[in-house]
From TrEMBL:
GO terms for biological process: proton motive force-driven ATP synthesis. F-type ATPases have 2 components, CF(1) - the catalytic core - and CF(0) - the membrane proton channel. CF(1) and CF(0) have multiple subunits. Component of the ATP synthase complex composed at least of ATP5F1A/subunit alpha, ATP5F1B/subunit beta, ATP5MC1/subunit c (homooctomer), MT-ATP6/subunit a, MT-ATP8/subunit 8, ATP5ME/subunit e, ATP5MF/subunit f, ATP5MG/subunit g, ATP5MK/subunit k, ATP5MJ/subunit j, ATP5F1C/subunit gamma, ATP5F1D/subunit delta, ATP5F1E/subunit epsilon, ATP5PF/subunit F6, ATP5PB/subunit b, ATP5PD/subunit d, ATP5PO/subunit OSCP. This is ATP synthase F(0) complex subunit e, mitochondrial. It comes from the Eukaryota. It comes from Anopheles epiroticus. PANTHER family: ATP SYNTHASE E CHAIN, MITOCHONDRIAL, ATP SYNTHASE SUBUNIT E, MITOCHONDRIAL. Keywords: Acetylation, ATP synthesis, CF(0), Coiled coil, Hydrogen ion transport, Ion transport, Membrane, Mitochondrion, Mitochondrion inner membrane, Transport. GO terms for cellular component: mitochondrial inner membrane; proton-transporting ATP synthase complex. One of its GO terms (molecular function) is proton transmembrane transporter activity. Residues 49-76 form a coiled coil. Belongs to the ATPase e subunit family. Subunit e, of the mitochondrial membrane ATP synthase complex (F(1)F(0) ATP synthase or Complex V) that produces ATP from ADP in the presence of a proton gradient across the membrane which is generated by electron transport complexes of the respiratory chain. ATP synthase complex consist of a soluble F(1) head domain - the catalytic core - and a membrane F(1) domain - the membrane proton channel. These two domains are linked by a central stalk rotating inside the F(1) region and a stationary peripheral stalk.
């Protein structure tokens, strides 16, 4: 194996810069996450309102399809007059 030697002492200025960037990055990430969470809450409220409308339309369409299917079955099962 290669001999790596003794570790080099890092300048206090460089260590301060590294820790500063780490703290700033974590703070920015928390701020950005909070901003995105607020936006997502607004989007979810809009989607909830639209879901009610969409569900009503789907129920109406399903009812119409069932009625049409029942009518078609009734026409097919009715005896034909010749």
């Amino acid at each position: 194996m290669a001999d790596l030697g003794a570790p080099v002492r890092v300048s206090p200025l460089i260590r301060f810069g590294r820790w500063s960037f780490l703290v700033v990055g974590v703070a920015y990430g928390a701020y950005h996450q909070q901003r995105l969470a607020k936006r997502e809450v607004g989007i979810r409220e809009i989607e909830a309102q639209q879901k009610v409308i969409r569900d009503a339309k789907l129920a109406e369409e399903k009812k119409r399809n069932q009625e049409a299917e029942a009518k078609a079955i009734a026409e097919l099962s009715a005896p034909t007059k010749k």
